[in-house]
Write a structure and sequence with these properties.
Length: 109
């Protein structure tokens, strides 16, 4: 399954924009979808993540302003960006995460 981000554009400070991440197949087959961004001259950073169970998490810099959501019927994950700031200027990417088989770590006292 491949993902394609769309919806970027020009927005005024304080404005809103919604990005879409559309899957070529069933987005429900992906364990988690992550939005990243990379500002000019900076490293790529994680912005928001949503699991198949709908659990979400956000970078501190966007907490309370951005909302990630998914619509499995449309095979799409959205990133609603409100109250935008100049520091939100970046190229935004979405990526899929597949869980591998985990390994148990036990620590004895």
């Amino acid at each position: 399954v491949q993902l394609q981000a769309s919806g970027g554009g020009l927005v005024q400070a304080g404005g809103s924009l919604r990005l879409s991440c559309t899957a070529s197949g069933s987005i429900g087959s992906i364990n988690a979808v992550v939005w990243y961004r990379q500002a000019p001259g900076k490293q790529r950073e994680l912005v928001a993540v949503i699991t198949g169970d709908g659990i979400t998490d956000y970078a501190d810099s966007v907490q309370g302003r951005f909302t990630i959501s998914r619509d499995n019927a449309k095979d799409t994950v959205y990133l609603q960006m409100n109250s935008q700031k100049p520091e939100d200027i970046a190229v935004y990417y979405c990526s899929g995460v597949y869980w591998g088989k985990g390994t148990l770590v036990t620590v004895s006292s």
